[in-house]
Amino acid sequence: MSKNVVKQAGPFLVLAIAAIAALFIPSLPDFDGSKVYNSSDIAWVIVSTALVFLMTPALAFFYGGMVHRKNVLSTMIKSTVAAGVVTVLWIVVGFSLCFGESINGIIGNPSTFLFFKGVNSGAPWSLAPTIPFTLFSLFQLMFAIITPGLVVGAVAERIRFTSYVSFIVLFGLFVYAPLAHWSWHPEGFLFKMGALDFAGGTVVHISAGCAALAGALVLKRRKVHMANEEVPPANIPYVLIGTGLLWFGWFGFNAGSALGANALAVSAFATTNTAAASAGLSWMFFDVIRGKKPSVLGFCIGAVVGLVAITPGAGFVAIPQSIFIGFIAAIISNLAVYYKQKSTLDDTLDVFPCHGLGGMVGMLLTGVFATKTVNAAGNDGWFYGNIDFFLTQAKAMVIVVAYSFTVSYAIFKLINLFQPIRVSSEEEELGLDESQHNEKYVQGTLLISENGVVVEKEVKEF
Questions:
Q1: Whole domain around residue 139: which residue ranges?
Q2: Looking at the DSSP assignment, which residues form a beta bridge with residue 447?
């Protein structure tokens, strides 16, 4: 069997082994939690889980609308395929690594819930006592799915599909799982340090943003970037649709992280919406005072930055302060995008300036504006006289940035040792839709009559 055939068959064989091994995992009875569970909490977290899942195809539309027309499908599938890869990985070992028995506060024991062994029969999670443990695990799965999908925007238009699938697996095991354990497991060392991350500012956005930066550096610049050619967005309405669905799904992302239908969920819902609204306006109006016209892309990108920035503090800060968080985060990311465009860094869709820096700003401002008035389990921030908590947030942020960038950079380099991580110049010129997937994105067809015969003409622009 040739080396090339082995490479092609490898992913299928790994999946087949996992599927066959799953047959031998014993079934256990469901945990009887009739006297423990709260039906309202269960209903809300089920809805939230579905909302967070919706964010993955929403992200595909958001990213797909901004790349060149010849790379739309390849960009969208790279975000979406994470739903398949991460789900299987999560069941096999991912959930154990994140929430299994803690090994020195660094990582979960991989055998704790191997192949979801005992998850359905286990007692509720200590921080989510009113919902089944299985539901908690599925809610957390949705966060693990979207995180590697965020990285796609930085490496779009030049990374091989198979190489990106490999990245999803390695990132999930060696970046996402440790960070989730550190931040959200009661024995995790960042959790015990007192760092607060309500819904994934560090675990999701800083980690993805830093991985995006690493990927952009390893893959280097696109040909169009080196030639200073402008890449027209394929479909701005896609971006608008993606933004609306992301905003909608983010209510599950943040308010669902209260893990119950309670006052904290309501507060997180309100701060999420407020920060997004403020940031969208901030980005758009900041562009106007710099001489640009208000744009659809500007408002959409700004709103997403606001959603990112409020994520770590959604359940710890009050509603009025969320206006400021969205406002300032959008300005910082806007300026970062401006200066990035003047550099040689080719982060295709500005993932690091928007998600990486947006997450960092949110993490630090949680250290400023958090208050026990909103969440007694949280802390008071610098704004309320507690500078120690701000310093704790800053320390945790530095640790997460350094770890996620370093390990992600190593992962991209490692993959490149075994298979080319970047497409060839010819494939890049042709477009990844055709070269990687043998498919083509067509925005529409126009029926016209030529000499009495109705024919189809490709419509490339709306």
A1: 11-437
A2: 456
